[in-house]
Amino acid sequence: MVKLMRRNLDWWAIITATIFLGFQVVCDLSLPNLTSNLINNGVAKGNVGYIWQIGLQMLGLTLVGIFAAAGNVYFASTQAQKMGARLRGKIFKKVLSFSFLIPLIKSLSPHK
Fold this sequence. Notes:
This protein has one domain (29-108). It is 87% helix and 0% strand.
């Protein structure tokens, strides 16, 4: 499988998808910490300014996480589709190279 991946994938796209995945994970894992800070330092103390500040940070992190997830899905899915298309093309060429099929294809052709 590693040989197929080396031959059929664009490494720049794989690295880009991995970077987007890293940003998504950081954003997703930061939200619970911000939520606990919001509750402990904002709601419990009645600090409305702090609640707004942390709420806007959470909204920003969520938006960054959404864009990172979209970038990850885009690059990963396009590479999967390209790899599948390349493998299908190679298999098709290999099947057509079988010598016993050439006379059969010529005999079935409507243009004799």
